[in-house]
Design brief:
Helices cover 52% and strands 13% of the residues. The protein is built from eleven helices and seven strands. It has helices spanning 15-26, 42-49, 62-78, 104-134, 149-152, 159-179, 204-214, 217-234, 248-259, 272-282, 287-298, and strands spanning 4-9, 30-35, 53-56, 82-89, 142-146, 185-190, 266-268.
């Protein structure tokens, strides 16, 4: 009996999530796409045309995660030749702004989605993942956690996001060691910059207003102009179409992570710009030199 591999992916409404779900389906894998915005969207309809399975999913909600898992388990039960191959934790949010500016609601939501959301999904699927891994399929069963360069090198204005992605990387490494003897592979995927072809900054305007409302009068006098200038600059990054992410280097690298028999611990995609600046940041520069490099890399407006 030929085996058909099943892949469950979170955060598939647009950007990287939609692109990797579409690519996975095109490769013939049974793809279950978790959709935060629900399944009555153009993005969901487009995935259905590729024979993927859109399913509503909010990784912050344990009941929603349980429903997502149950749907996958029903697919496996109804199709004896299906085997759970991979869980991909892609769902993520990002708000740009100094830590002091961000209200608790933004801070907690970032951690809740980017780190705790991934943990909830893995907790829900772990018994089935381990069971499949112990059956020793041809290629290893795997968990793929989508992290960020910000998790490797924290940047000013990205402190909360960096903390969530650094935590995801640390947890990924620990899980990999914990389940190596079971034949279950745990992998971190760092896709590089693709903000312009995603909706990561689509809520930046609303978040900027929330940050200003959060500050007291002393903080507004000190930071207000800087927040407004940065927010106006970032709002220029308008929302992209759900299928705008078409970077073949990112997608081909992800497919290697998804399909390689024995994937390594970390896969990282870097443009020449990312490679240049992030390698500079690794040098033993004086603090003022590192600050200059980071400022050049971010290219945020001066205030």
């Amino acid at each position: 009996m030929s085996i058909t591999r099943v892949v469950a992916i979170t955060g598939c409404d647009s950007g990287l999530g939609w692109a990797i779900a579409a690519r996975s389906a095109r490769e013939g894998l049974v793809t279950v796409a978790g959709m935060y915005q629900g399944v009555n969207t153009q993005a969901a309809d487009s995935l259905r045309k590729l024979y993927a399975h859109p399913f509503p999913l909010d990784v912050r909600d344990p009941e929603s995660v349980a429903g997502f898992r149950d749907y996958v388990k029903c697919l496996l039960k109804d199709n004896p030749n299906y085997k759970l191959h991979a869980i991909v934790n892609n769902a993520g949010v990002m708000t740009i702004g100094n830590y002091e500016w961000q209200p608790p609601s933004i801070i907690e939501n970032t951690i809740n989605v980017n780190l705790l959301g991934a943990m909830r999904v893995v907790t829900a699927f772990m018994p089935d993942l381990r069971k499949t891994a112990l059956e020793k399929p041809i290629s290893k069963t795997r968990i793929i956690n989508v992290s960020s360069h910000c998790g490797l090198q924290p940047l000013p204005g990205f402190g909360v996001y960096s903390a969530s992605k650094a935590g995801l990387l640390a947890w990924t490494r620990a899980l990999r060691h914990e389940h190596r003897e079971h034949g279950l592979s745990v992998v971190a995927f760092v896709p590089g910059g693709f903000v312009a072809s995603s909706n990561l900054l689509s809520h930046q305007g609303t978040s900027g207003d929330a940050m200003l409302d959060h500050l007291n009068e002393e903080q507004k006098a000190f930071y207000g102009k800087k927040i407004t200038t940065l927010n106006n600059y970032l709002k220029q990054a308008h929302s992209a179409r759900f299928d705008s992410m078409r970077d073949e280097n990112i997608l081909e690298t992800f497919m290697e992570v998804l399909l390689k028999d024995n994937p390594r611990e970390l896969y990282k995609v870097e443009s020449w710009r990312y490679m240049f600046y992030y390698n500079l940041m690794k040098l033993p520069l004086p603090e003022w030199g590192l600050a200059w490099v980071i400022k050049k890399f971010l290219s945020f407006p001066d205030v």
